[in-house]
From TrEMBL:
It comes from Sulfitobacter sediminis. It holds the Pfam family HAD_2. SUPFAM superfamilies: HAD-like. GO terms for molecular function: hydrolase activity. The lineage of its organism: Bacteria, Pseudomonadati, Pseudomonadota, Alphaproteobacteria, Rhodobacterales. It comes from the Bacteria. This is HAD family hydrolase. The keyword RNA-binding does not apply. Keywords: Hydrolase. The keyword Hydrolase applies.
Length: 214
């Protein structure tokens, strides 16, 4: 193994409740009588992408909305939340990143999230360089969204490694499918609101052992 790839912002930091709050704040600001309960939000997470989740919610509510504008406002609210500080890297991820650095592994952050969100999150945590990331992807890279493997293939190329040399950690099924489609071994580490999701037979984060290839 020569690289550890962190597959989403919620693998790194569990922001799922902040995101739910950002959705609800955006709905309120738009004058919509919508509210995402925790149970409803957990169900909606099975739909990849915030804009698509809004569209699905609108369809069920039988209302017409500008999903792009609403999602953009939600994203800005969420970005401001991230800028306020107080975030912590999830314990097992912090340990894995420390172990990866100790063994001299490359470290990648392979997410298709909006660049402003990724920048806000990483700045809150001290910056990509301080965290030891050798490469970070965002939506600005122009790759197809997961479960398409494009982001992972892009990361492999930039890190100059083969798929067999990397292991990924993901928190939801489309991310797992993307890693596997790129030929990368993947472990699951679902966030708080995805614990009940069906992740197939993906090995758990606890089964991950990091050691540099000889």
């Amino acid at each position: 193994m020569n690289a550890l790839l962190i597959g989403s912002i919620d693998v790194l930091v569990d922001t799922s409740e902040l995101q739910r709050s950002a959705f609800n704040d955006a709905f309120h600001d738009a004058g919509l009588d919508w509210y995402l309960s925790r149970d409803e939000y957990r169900r909606m997470l099975a739909i990849p992408g915030g804009k698509r989740r809004i569209e699905a919610f609108a369809e069920r509510a039988e209302e017409r909305v500008d999903s792009a504008a609403l999602h953009a406002h939600k994203t800005e609210i969420f970005r401001q939340m991230l800028r306020r500080g107080g975030l912590e890297i999830r314990v097992q991820i912090a340990q894995a990143m420390e172990e990866a650095r100790r063994h001299g592994l490359k470290l990648g952050f392979v997410t298709g999230t909006d660049r402003a969100i990724v920048d806000a999150l990483l700045d809150n945590l001290g910056g990509a360089e301080a965290l030891g990331f050798d490469f970070v992807t965002t939506a600005a890279d122009g790759c197809a969204a997961k479960p398409d493997p494009a982001l992972y293939l892009h990361a492999l190329k930039q890190l100059e490694i083969d798929a067999s040399e990397a292991v990924a950690i993901e928190d939801y099924l489309p991310g797992i499918e993307a890693a596997r489609a790129a030929g990368i071994a993947c472990h699951a580490y679902p966030h708080e609101n995805a614990l009940a999701h069906d992740l197939g037979e993906t090995p758990d984060m606890s089964e991950l052992t990091l050691k540099r290839a000889a």
